[in-house]
Amino acid sequence: MTVLGEGKFLQLVNEHNWEYVRRKTVGVVAVFPLFKKKDGKMYVRLVSQFRPPVQAEVTSTVAGLVDNGENLLNAAKRELYEEAGLTSNQFQYLGCFPSSSGLTDEAVDLFLAFDCKETQDLDWVPDKEEGIRIEDYTLEEFNQFLQTKPGLVDAKLYIAAFYYPIYLKLREEEIEKAKIY
Q: Which domain holds residue 103?
């Protein structure tokens, strides 16, 4: 393998005549946060921000880099708070997915976060340096959003959209079984 160039987080390499980008960091996590508001409806919080590689605003799940020495779950909890101002102790791991297998070795570990709570930290605001904008959608609005595709939508969001109904149904069944009559 030959290193063709590198920056703080990435290396451009050539291996067996294949040029690709290697992550120099531990990993990447993404979180699809689900929570109820006072109206009793289930919501998802999405993150939008300008992404220079595509020169456009992209809507996605909460996502970020795993810090050295940090496990995936703790990274997911940290990113959920930092980017979305939410906390949760109920996570479902969905798996690890390559972000673009012909371009990079990066793989994303994706989680669902259930029963999220909005932070009571009055100092919390989305990271201004990252230009993050958050939006809440009911699940019905979210499904409509995916059908209308207003602008660029990150692929992680489509993967989460496929999985979340399955896990919501399983959770409802588990809660129903646990009820004592």
A: 26-178
3-state secondary structure (DSSP) of residue 119: coil
Structure tokens at 25: 């960091």
Q: Each residue of 124-138: pLDDT tens digit?
A: 776 667 788 999 999
**Residue 143, Ramachandran bin (φ over 0: left; ψ between -120 and 50: alpha; else beta):** alpha
Condensed to tens digits (0 to 9), the pLDDT of residues 102-122 reads 999 999 999 999 999 988 776
Cβ atoms < 10 Å from Cβ of 11? 16
Domain count, the chain: 1
**Placement of tokens 């999405």 in the chain:** 46
Describe the crossing of helices 155-178 and 139-148 by its angle, rounded to 10 degrees. Answer: 160
CA atoms within 13 A on the CB side of 11: 12
